[in-house]
Amino acid sequence: MPFRWSINPYRGCAMGCVYCFARITHWYLDEDGVRDWTRRIYVKVNAPEVLRRELARPAWKRELVALGTATDPYQPLEGRYRITRGVLQALGEFRTPVSIVTKGSMIVRDLDVLQELARGPGCSVSFSVTTMDAALARQIEPDPPPPLQRLRAMQRLVDAGVPAGVLVAPILPGLTDAEESLEAVVRAATDHGARFLGGMLLHLGDVTRDAYFEFLEHKYPALIPEYQAVYRGKYAARDRQRRVQEVVAALKRRYLIPQGTGVRTERRNPSAEQLSLLAP
């Protein structure tokens, strides 16, 4: 990982993306990551207070903290508990840079805190957008805001001076990996002011593989042989990965997506490609 520290205010996620790699974290607690990932959500209600104690230690070097690496920090429960906002405020108080990955348009609620972070220690926001096909998005991502709504939220952040961009991740073989599908996302990202863009193919670890193949059996059974051939293990075959990476790179050049996020140093700000490893 391109950072040493991460925070996840919740465990489990109501957004219910069928490809979510973090489902295995329920398995660590003897929970069902296929069925209960969206139904049994752990809320870390004292996270901001614990974080302040940790950041106050003299040994803290104000390294980059990645927020939302194993669950979406702006899932619906955040509207009630406001833990993510509290975490961001704590990071700002202790001059600690942050990178955020989300599908949640609720993030615009915290624009004031994000602006302070962007002007100070550093802040970047990566919006996960897998497809611009709204009907397909509802199948693979049942409860996040629609893709266009996410891009409008991104544009509000960019216009307010908060570096933000798009992760076309995960890219799903047979569903979202066609060049025209990828181009639609890149074009829309450009139209909405994305400062950076990255993309990566789906990876299928334990638990996630079970959930995803169950989805394919119900919705796209004809694709199962292709997935069995491409995914002998957790990661897709290298030739498939290379082809997708080449297409994304060419689209970035075509649409002049700038490189980097505008935060002060690469050490404190992972690239979009690096963060795409974490896209939920």
Textual characterization of the structure:
- The protein is α/β, with parallel strands linked by helices and 280 residues long.
- The protein has a single domain (5-275), classed as Alpha-Beta Barrel (TIM Barrel).
- It has helices spanning 24-27, 47-55, 78-81, 83-93, 111-119, 134-140, 147-159, 179-191, 208-219, 224-230, 238-254, 272-275; strands spanning 5-7, 10-11, 42-43, 65-67, 98-102, 123-128, 164-171, 197-201.
- Helix 2 (47-55) runs parallel beside helix 4.
- The protein is globular, with a radius of gyration of 18 Å.
- The two termini are 15 Å apart.
- The model is unreliable at 261-280 (pLDDT under 50).
Multimeric status of the protein:
single chain
Q: Characterize the overall form.
A: globular
Biggest sheet strand order reads: 1-4-5-6-7-8
- Structural class estimated from helices and strands: alpha/beta
What about the largest sheet?
Answer: 6 strands, parallel
Order of helices and strands: EEHEHEHHEHEHHEHEHHHH
Number of distinct beta strands: 8
First and last CA, distance: 15 Å
CATH topology: TIM Barrel
CATH superfamily annotation = Aldolase class I
> How many domains, in number, for the residues?
1
Cα gyration radius (Å): 18 Å
- CATH C-level label: Alpha Beta
Low-confidence stretches: 261-280
In short:
39% of the residues lie in helices and 12% in strands. It has 12 helices and 8 strands.
Features:
TIM Barrel, 6-stranded parallel sheet, two-stranded antiparallel ribbon, alpha/beta, 8 strands, 12 helices
